[in-house]
Structure prediction request, 84 residues.
Amino acid sequence: MYQLTEYDIHQWEWDSKHEVFTGEAKKLYSHQCGVPFPNGRKQFRILNPKTGGFRRFRWIGELEGEWWYESEDGIGARVLVDKE
Prediction:
């Protein structure tokens, strides 16, 4: 069975006005894997260790070097991808 990649909430910047998490792919490390942003366009979770909660994000599209994901409750996650 596929296990979702999980990231700590502290690796993301939160924009409360637009309700979007933003992170750079090269700086997003999962505790499950030693490479940055290993999940690519698959869904993932952002964990909040303070509350014990999490949100699951699913791929919705790509726009100008940004990969966009959305949670079930409409919160966005934007991953900045290097185009080297």
In short: Residues 5-80 form one domain. The chain has one domain: 5-80. The chain has a mean pLDDT of 90. The first strand starts at residue 5 and ends at 8.
